Amino acid sequence: MKKFRKFLFLPLLVLLAFTLSACGNKGKQNVYQKVETSKHIVWGVRADTRLFGLTNVKSGKIEGFEMDLAKALTKQMLGKKGTASFVTTTANTRIPLLKNGNVDAVLATMTITPERAKQVTFTKAYFPAGSSLLVPNNSKITNVKDLNNKTVLAVKGTTAVDDVHKSAPKARVLQYDDYGQAMSALKANQGVALTTDNGLLAGIAQENPGYKLVGGVYSDAPYGIAVNKGQTEMADHINKALKELEANGTYNRLIKKWFAGIPGFSLKGVLK
Known about the structure:
- The chain folds into two domains: 35-127 and 222-257, D-Maltodextrin-Binding Protein, domain 2 (3-Layer(aba) Sandwich), CATH 3.40.190; 128-218, D-Maltodextrin-Binding Protein, domain 2.
- The protein contains ten helices and 13 strands.
- The radius of gyration is 22 Å and the shape is elongated.
- The strands form four sheets. A five-stranded mixed β-sheet has the order 10-9-11-8-12. A three-stranded parallel β-sheet has the order 5-1-6. It has a three-stranded antiparallel β-sheet with strand order 2-3-4.
- By secondary structure, it is an alpha/beta fold.
- β9, α6 and β10 (172-176) form a beta-alpha-beta unit.
- Residues 1-22 form the signal peptide.
């Protein structure tokens, strides 16, 4: 009986070792070589951010600037037969999904920071994000310095909270759990402006007529595409494709498709 148990146990150990090895290798494999062979890239994207990536309730598909950019990058990198698929991520799951090999790259309003660069490899910036202001159309606020001695609205955990104090140290900041609450507070005149990334504010302005962006960008928080740490070949090919899309006009076409006509949003600082 003992011999039988030993005989049964050994194959299980071998299977377990093989599985762990496979999982480990998944994260260490050369991602560019994999996608070049398969002609397929799995992108980690947002599905809750208007203009960048938002689920269309009618079609069930994620639509936005980042979806279109990911598709264009895929074709530019892998040719006409290249295909893209999308995995929904959040701010908390972006890096773990990348580390575990569930996605090949993350294109999800991810600000390039020194802390994140310790865990992932970033491409060059593809969107010049930074803190901006959203105000009613009849507001007298024209820039961030006008917020001194006034109340501004923000969302907890965003970099805008610190950014606004750097530019307007006497501003009073009211923080809310999400943008819906913060926007409701702005409509109720609980503050003179709402502050966060310019791209996110553009999406909020699009669905809230009567409000506009002002003051341009008063902080620097550009978005970059992230690949797993050490996947420099993948990052290099994405950078090359980005440069080619900028040169052939595709990038500007997508920017205009999604951001043109947003009240107060300046295309001048975004177009390449």
